[in-house]
């Protein structure tokens, strides 16, 4: 599994995470059969597992889990988390947990040096938020708190900790403050200054983490980092738990990748199936194999030729199309996504496409033997498997994805399989196969022509032009903060004072002529 991008933040890669799991969580525990909050399951994983695995996704390699209430029940899970997930996880006991979650940080203080993340065990969050905190920390010495300004999307606002922000400094924090600008997500990047603030707050009777942050904020030592559209959830009650499940399932859709059938038919169905599969021990690769076997069953039934079997075959391949999305969904829900899994799924999809085509062709051959059946079927088969190959070769050679065209949605596998399902219902599977193959070849031709025109528009000039004078361009670039974060910027405008008469491509071509590079992939 890809454990998260490096982002070049080498100095912060060793930042450990402190996960606060010592509280009683009585509201959720009462509605959950007495199960301790850290052990409460959300779509196959406990809240504590989700916190640790989210840290791992963000590149964190070391976690300290502070336990207190019902520590005997929680400790076995903590001890096994690291062994199962390839991350160092250490339990720290807090005998003073009843005095507030700030005491949990003081309990782990002897094990920390330098910066550290602070995470609430009952919060679900996008791991990218931790990366943003880590990147922002490179430009400030203050403690950082991830905040959410989109207050309208927060499910349980009454229990949410609010923050007041002036500029980028947090000036006040609490659940009952009168004026506020954003919500506290419970995700921090702090250093040793927080321990002194927690001690001072504790001496006046406030043992909470919020009390320590409030004390540090009075000194100007806490700054806000906005999370933008990234998600987070606080799970305190049964209603929160239900909302968390719905939110995680809603994030399974991929509008930029899904075809029309997948978006409006397959995803709603596969999401419900995946929700049940998360309760089992089935791995994503096992689900991939199961989907492939369903596809093979449909292909065999197509080869029998009779309408009853053809109709059942169509139902099976549409079911396979639905379950084909379950492996990736379960992988994302249970933090088991891997490059091998994606590659394995792609290979079996291609074998499945071949099997379906051969089954349909064989069924037609039984009823109407003739050379055109295998000739037309073979051409259609190439149309089924070439789109995937074409896209991957394009990415390999051009180092970026194909420019999006609306016709790409028609060429996706979910649409192709649904067309074959419809053809099976009408007892016209061979005709549907020919139609799908024709449209696929048409789409490939369109992509080829569009790429050729882009290449023609950037044709290299002659050697005389390239060897001519290449004036340099003076570029002035201005930036703005990203999503309200002063530490993350993006370009917004650029002025060119002396435009060049030749393209960047031509200059790159000249450089390659002057400094030839060995061809590592000869024809």
Structure description:
The chain has 523 residues and is α/β, with parallel strands linked by helices. It is built from 18 helices and 15 strands. The protein has helices at residues 26-30, 47-57, 71-85, 102-108, 128-136, 193-203, 209-218, 238-250, 260-277, 284-302, 307-323, 326-333, 339-367, 371-398, 413-425, 429-457, 463-466, 504-514; strands at residues 17-21, 41-42, 45-46, 62-67, 88-93, 116-120, 123-125, 143-148, 162-166, 169-174, 182-190, 222-226, 232-234, 475-482, 485-496. α10 (284-302) packs antiparallel against α11 (307-323), α10 packs antiparallel against α12 and α11 (307-323) runs antiparallel to α15. The two termini are 33 Å apart.
Biggest sheet architecture: 9 strands, mixed
- Runs with pLDDT <50, length 5+? 1-12, 469-484, 486-502, 514-523
Quick one: how many beta strands? 15
Rg from Cα: 29 Å
N-to-C terminal Cα separation, in Å? 33 Å
As a percent range, the share of helical residues equals 40-55%
